Input
Amino acid sequence: MEGSLEHFNHPMNDLRKEVLGWMRYYGQLNNLFRALEEDPDGLFPTGEARLLRLLEQRTGRLREEAQLLREYCLQVGSCSRRKLTSGKPDHEDPSPLHHPFFCRCPWWPVGTE
Output
């Protein structure tokens, strides 16, 4: 087990950093659309203000989804570190590391042996 997870943390950290970048990007877009929607000078017609509100809501949801992915990356990374230090066989120490989604990833060390 140790050999299969030793190169796991680096790709997981890279993924977590990438998701953090997307989270910041969607947060900035969300703030921009919110500021444009407020439109204190009345630059946008009512229909366009509705579209800006819709864009604000959608970017807000995308940011929330990116945050959930980042938290899941942290959780999976923590599980992999525990697994490396525990040394227990897989059937004694079940974890989300064997989730089918991750087993399909080409860089995923678990389930590819």
Summary: The mean pLDDT is 76. Helices lie at 2-5, 9-38, 46-86, 100-103. Residues 9 and 77 are 6 Å apart (CA to CA). The radius of gyration is 20 Å.
